[in-house]
Fold this protein.
Amino acid sequence: MATQEQKKDYHVTKDFDGVNTKANRTSIKETEFAWLENAMPIGHGNLRIVPAPTIVSGVTFGSTVYYAQYGDIGTTNYYIAFQTDGRCEAVNVATNAKITVAAAGTFSSSGVQASQWNNTLVIIIDPTNGYFQWDGTNLVKVGSLTFTLSGTGTGYTTATASVAVPNQTGGTRAVISLSTNGTAITSVSAYGTGLTTGTGYTSVPAVTITSAGSGQTITAAIVSQPGTCIASFSGRVWIASGRTLYYTAAGTNNDFYSATSGNIIFNDSTLIGNITQLVSANNFLYVFGADSINVISDVRISTSTGTTLYTNTNISASVGSDQPYAMMPYFRSIVFMNRYGVYALVGSTTSKISDALDGLFPYIDFTKTVSAGQVLIYNILCAAFNFYYTGTQGTQGTGQWIQAVFFDKKWFFTYQNAVKYITSIPVAGAGTMYSTTNTDLQIMYQSNTLALSSKIQSALMSMGNVIRDKVALKWGVEAVLGGTLGNNLNVTVDSENTSATSTTTTATNFSLVTWVNNAGTTVGWVNNSIAVVTWGNANAGYYLYKYDAQMWGKYIGMTVTSTSPNYTIAGMQFETELRAKF
Amino acid sequence: MANMDALSIVRHGDIDSLNGFIFENGVQHKTFAEALMDQDIVIPRFPIMDANPNDLEDWLLTHQVEHQAMASALNLSDPINLLDTNWNNEESFYDWISTHLYLHQQILAALGI
């Protein structure tokens, strides 16, 4: 009697959600992934390998870069790299020309932050050395002056005074005016039309009274401003130092002394520790603490007192962040990462957006810097967080720097070399991600021809029947190949019993033949149009990779790894047979 | 000039319309706060120009705080509790919208805007 053929089941996954590390691989949705590295789940049938990074040639920084910031001077965009030996260098991202902003020893070896004033200055705060400004040519330590009048004067019918030039190149010489009562000088002012408190003074200048008269002197004192965070907001510079937020006078970037300048001391218990970061966006200045967020808004000058009015409102007394480089505006929200998740602050509502990464957070090394930026990948604006992952799921095996990338409520990971810091720079209006692994500069997500390790690990799927064992007979991967570069996919069929170790096959139907002569030299071929000719099945377009599976279990899934660039997985397929219950 | 239309023609269940309402409402609150500051009156201010339409509890709360502060600063009668609403119910939603519109008209008149 002929044996009846066992009924076969077919399972196809074409809807691709993001990675989900929160639950076991058997417990996530069949459209989710247990790991998804360098593959972007764009949409239905569209799981695409991201472009590889490219190295910016000719740029080697003098020391290890620990922090970098975008700078905009005129129409020139700069990548500004702060380094562990205290130097700072800037790279013109249009020409890749590197210039020195500050020599080694100028800045602290950690903790420096920078921001932007207008498109004329990069403003820099150093926790030890204070406040600096860079105009594309000169770096000036902001040291404005205050003046004190002393002595009893006689003979000053009129009086003028001059202040010595600042000792820093690029500084602004202070200009003051004096008032007299016909005999003595009654006041000194550096505020008003044509007057200025100056910048660039790191040593006290001489003040010379140039009028007839005697008995009075004017002495200058330097006003500097150390701090840990800096932002420009509402036409002023804001610097946080400890629990105090200092702001410059209206319309100025360096005047911490005149009437409309001031400070806000955060005495409230909602701020635990010190201010960790300032973010200017959406008409608000967000003041982050480790566990809190305040907003400053509506900065105006009182018409009656001439002092500055503002509102200071606590909008979160439980969630904040102590990761100062892991915060950024994203669309009309602020997204930030702390030690237990990634959050979006929309209006005054803080929502966790990283539930799918809950299984990953215990493996993040928070002794290393976490950085963030937004980037366009395949014309989709994504938020990316860079950190060191100590687990073993990634393509590098035993710990690696990794980027968790978010868009459209989905997460995936990328690995673009051992990137230690990421910085978003708008290039031609498009969010472009620059990064450094140490002393180099690279642009992420750029090349669709360079090799890139990828790992796509599906859910372990019950295929509609958890109770019964199933035997996987065949697997298939629908792929759309983007170029004639050769696309080899290594596919492992997995079950809950033998996790990714049982069957490994390699699809090689896109391999090219390499011709080698008897001297061992590779021989190239060109046609009569002098175009390079390749040998093999090297056409771009749709391919169905398929092979025998040989795997059983209650749950079946697959892991696809590759170093091939620029291909898209359009579907994952299984042929299975059901077996025993329980 | 306050765009009162955007505060009144919002449609129930229409996310785009609701977002337009939330933005215009936020702009008007900013205008009110700045007008009060010109009188040296500072009120609490929250980022209410944006909200997650699927999670409006925080928005309703902070919005209510601002209205209470404005009413107090302008010596207006206590505003109706704008938290006491169920926006899933169409009738309740439109009741809230009309009450809120009246409050804004009251504030505009008090400020002379």
Q: What stands out?
A: Confidence is low (pLDDT under 50) at residues 500-507 of chain A.
